[in-house]
Specification:
There is one protein chain. The protein is of the alpha/beta class. The chain folds into four domains: 75 residues, Winged helix-like DNA-binding domain superfamily/Winged helix DNA-binding domain (Arc Repressor Mutant, subunit A), CATH 1.10.10.10; 163 residues, no CATH class; 105 residues, no CATH class; 91 residues, 3-Layer(aba) Sandwich (Rossmann fold). Helix content is 55%, strand content 9%. A four-stranded parallel sheet has the order 7-6-8-9, with helices on one face. It has a three-stranded antiparallel sheet with strand order 3-5-4. A two-stranded antiparallel ribbon has the order 1-2. A hairpin with a 2-residue loop joins strand 4 and strand 5. Helix 12 packs across helix 13 and helix 12 runs antiparallel to helix 16.
Length: 467
């Protein structure tokens, strides 16, 4: 991502992995997950802790590595974005992109002197960044000057995605005076766009408007001599033309960063066809969509069409702005995920441009359309017990609530329809299916009963998938 070094990416992946676990995790398991040696991983722990101790000496955040228990992350009241920002803003990649906000070309020697590196190291770093940028039709050239080349729209969007996407809360791109100015502009833009001026929205709008204003200040105007300038807040957005304002709105719309945002670009026939194909295959694999839901699909493909025009339809960027990665859309193994993979295979064979960005968007949309209970495996259970009807209902409620969010329990009235049977007292089992699992529990359903039942459920689900 953005040409970040492998070491930086592993550190960020390590922090995210630890943050997804409540307690200690086996250190060797982490090393295997990251694809690094155990000693290399311990080196990363030390470097992360040393870097953060300089900023947070009171140990608000640290990685604890214990030979006995494993590794865990303690982050107090900080969130992972703030921690990631500290790591990212210390990289050369970030320094290069930050420089491009203020000047589209700069002295190689001055940059090397400022950061204490050799020219050859800077050249290697630029080569590494270009491997990422080339897919977006952007390129950085390096000789005595370092210069970013490509479409002006693409350069602005790339700088915005870096400054906003990687660090949603970063303030390091501004000086204090500039930050105050654009924070005020962010509030004014929120009012203009009729959205709630919360911290998230104000920061987003101020960052994006700052990127565009800097580009205009450098003389990279998208439009010149507009007969009728439609840009609002002319005193604050000095020098903006109509195309600058259109780009501002278009990016907010196509990346779903601002609610109720609209653009004037109409949907072409090809985009409508792709949306109709998506709807057709969704309804074949899931359910019929109502008109309002179909409109959501048309809007999604309109956004994707605009993103493609900007050359940013890339799966790696998706995880930057949305809460799902390509891996999550491909590697899960729930009933919903298997159903989604079947849908995606059918759809992707029949259209072009069915890349990972579109796949992740489709995954999110399918999740929105499918009730939560349908995303989990369904297990049919028959309960045989001589307890009263009200007591039997209590048993069912306790079992259902315990497994809520993991599997969908459906109680049946006939043991012939059940995946397995639960009994509360020993009975003659000759009438039951010999292949069907029978689990004996207490009528009051203890914690140990539920744990035993969880083991049996897991075994059943594993065998069902293999079958």
């Amino acid at each position: 991502m953005f040409g970040l070094s492998k070491e930086t990416q592993i550190k960020l992946k390590l922090l995210q992995y630890l943050d997804n676990h409540e307690s200690y995790v086996n250190s060797e398991k982490i090393a295997e997950y990251l694809g690094v040696q155990y000693q290399t991983m311990r080196k990363y722990y030390r470097e992360i802790n040393q870097q953060l101790e300089q900023i947070y000496p009171e140990q608000q955040f640290y990685v604890e590595a214990s030979t006995r228990y494993g590794t865990r992350l303690y982050r107090g009241e900080m969130n992972l974005d703030q921690i990631s920002e500290i790591i990212l803003t210390g990289t050369l990649e970030y320094a290069v992109f930050q420089k491009f906000i203020y000047e589209r070309s700069f002295s190689s020697q001055a940059f090397c002197d400022e950061h204490g590196i050799s020219f050859s190291k800077l050249r290697r770093k630029i080569t590494q960044i270009n491997q990422f940028l080339h897919r977006f039709d952007l390129h950085i050239s390096i000789s005595h000057q370092v210069k970013i080349n490509g479409s002006e729209e693409g350069i602005r969007i790339m700088l915005f995605l870096l400054m906003y996407g990687l660090q949603p809360y970063t303030k390091s791109v501004y000086s204090d005076a500039v930050e105050e100015k654009y924070y005020r502009i962010g509030h004014l833009l929120a009012n203009e766009l009729e959205v709630e001026p919360n911290n998230y929205m104000v920061h987003l709008l101020s960052t994006w408007s700052f990127i565009i204003s800097q580009s205009v200040h450098l003389g990279y105007n998208l439009s010149k001599n507009d007969r009728k300038n439609k840009v609002p807040l002319k005193e604050e957005l000095t020098g903006w033309g109509n195309k600058d304002w259109e780009l501002f709105n278009s990016v907010l719309y196509c990346f779903e960063l601002c609610p109720n945002q609209a653009v004037s670009v109409k949907m072409d026939t090809s985009t409508k066809f792709k949306a109709q194909k998506w709807i057709k295959f969704f309804e074949r694999h899931f359910r019929i969509l109502v008109p309002a839901e179909k409109n959501m699909i048309y809007t999604m493909f309109h956004r994707l069409h605009l993103i493609k025009n900007y050359h940013f339809l890339d799966g790696e960027l998706h995880s930057l702005l949305y809460p799902v990665t390509v891996e999550e859309a491909e590697q899960k193994d729930t009933a919903f995920d298997r159903q989604f993979q079947e849908f995606w295979q059918s759809y992707s064979k029949n259209v072009q441009d069915a890349n990972n960005f579109v796949k992740c968007q489709s995954y999110l949309m399918c999740q929105n359309f499918i009730p939560l209970e349908q995303t989990f495996e369904k297990v049919h259970i028959f309960i045989y017990s001589k307890v009263s009807a009200s007591s039997l209902q209590l048993i069912k409620n306790k079992i259902y609530r315990y497994f809520m969010g993991e599997v969908v329990i459906e109680f049946v009235d006939d043991f012939m329809d059940a995946d397995f049977t639960i009994i509360t007292e020993e009975i003659n089992r000759t009438n039951f299916n010999k292949r069907q699992k029978i689990v004996v529990i207490n009528p009051w359903v203890s914690e140990k009963d539920l744990l035993m039942l969880a083991v049996q459920l897991q075994e059943f689900l594993t065998h069902a998938k293999l079958a």
